[in-house]
Design goal:
The chain is an all-beta fold and 145 residues long. The protein contains no helices and eleven strands.
Length: 145
Amino acid sequence: STDGFTFSLEAGVRLERSYPIYDPMVLRTGTKWYLWGHKNPEDVAAESDDGLTFTVVSEDFRIGATSVNVWSAINLGSTYRIGFSAAMQPSLRSATRTDTTSSWTPGANIAMSGAPTTGDEPVVDHGYTKLPDGTYALAYLSMIP
């Protein structure tokens, strides 16, 4: 896409696996591309030098010892941030790192005031972005009773 609204399908496979991968998330850094995708219940993680051909680096992506599902990723210039949930847990957490070789450092829960949830379901399908005024916007799905 050139405008972020109209997309064209490209030919070719970006990550060949023998199982389906759902909800892929891609993060571009200065030197690499990273991809996470859900294979239930864990995420597969892959990386690429060109953003076109990815190589799996983990069949069970973890932050520390915890298997996680990555739902969002953002390049903040000098820091990279991902939003994730521990496999099927009802909170949305974040992790950061400052380069492409360091470990991800877990952060705090991401606050979602007014979320109409029962507290049991995992927070899925979300994304956030930095707005021109320096604040952030978060959009997420939630079950409305």
